[in-house]
Amino acid sequence: MIYGLAYCDRDGRIYFDESRRPLADGGIVRMPQADELIAAPSGSLAMVLPGCRPRTGSGTQRRRHTLAVALPAGYTRLLLPAFEPDADAPTLPLFGYTFACVVDDALHVAAMQTDESDAWKPRTFAPGELEKLLDRRIALDPGNRVLRQVALCSREHGCFTAQNVFLENGEAALPVSPRCNARCVGCISEQEPEAGFPAPQTRVAFETTAEELARVAVYHLERVPNGIVSFGQGCEGEPLLRSVTMARAITLTRAVCSNGTINLNTNASVPKALQRCIDAGLQAVRVSLNSFRPSVYAAYYRPLGYTLDDVFESVRLAAAHGLRVSLNLLTHPGVTDDEPELLAMHEFLRATRIDMIQTRTLNIDPRWYFGVVGRPSKPRGMRAAIDAIQRLGVGVGNFTHTH
Ligand code: SF4
Hints:
By secondary structure, the protein is of the alpha/beta class. About 30% of the residues lie in helices and about 25% in strands. Iron/sulfur cluster binds near residues 189, 237 and 238.
């Protein structure tokens, strides 16, 4: 496979130069392999990285800017773009920067498809169509602040699970907690001023009640027989800090309808709080982590009052109670596939029942992330990491499934 450089000018116009072989970054800068490249899938977002100069086999292109791609849902990134930043190159906002190049005059990316679902295909609305849906639903329950929050997220952030509340489809969002007990470097709902870029989502500003949550859950499940309602969304902190409210919302919901799945997306930091939700009838849990190594986990999550051991204890608890257990693995080439990471992952997965690992692409400036967690010693390639998960009999995906 002959591949060439795809790059941008400062205004973001895209150019191809087939005479140059671009380098990629897998924790170690190298040439991409043919089996790591696919044609850029529909819904890919091409981006210029201002002041980042693309590296090639024949040197750094100092007059050109790096082109990177943000992948659509359902794809996992395998390699980062390799670039040399200018001294004044800004910190990049929270996107999943993926290596891109040209093959046969078409844009290609270093990625693999890890899931497929119509519910997660890129969406478009006719003018006013979404607003009409929001207004009609809110009119049925005007005082419900959960609806107000998911309407904001539907309108301003294009959040799929928020829009599903109004589309009466698939997995619906139930934001519950404005507070968090972690300070993730790449948090999408709250960033420290010195980060140099804003959080892409607006953190929910109030504590929703069990009654508000249950009304949204019941309305959804009464209309979507195999639907999912999920606590723990991108716009909130850690839901387990409000486990009493969640447990009561689950009880109120199950008092009315028994179909569908009640799911919790969480950092799983408080096993006791999770137990409370399980006792109330929680059926599925998706636990987020960036690493199976305590030091790499702590460097990114910056946890307040808990450790990775608490997270593992929660996962074992959910497995022991027969819940559907998924891990939301925030993947990053050079970290997820580093040999010590693969060994730690192998040890945990061999001892713990996990139904699925969602290999999500971590959205962060790679320079910053490597600065926080360190560059790898022996990266084995993201394909090898995903193969290792599958060889242990654990499903690989990108979305929450009920079976
Ligand atoms: S656990 Fe979630 S809400 Fe909390 S800091 Fe991390 S990303 Fe943000």
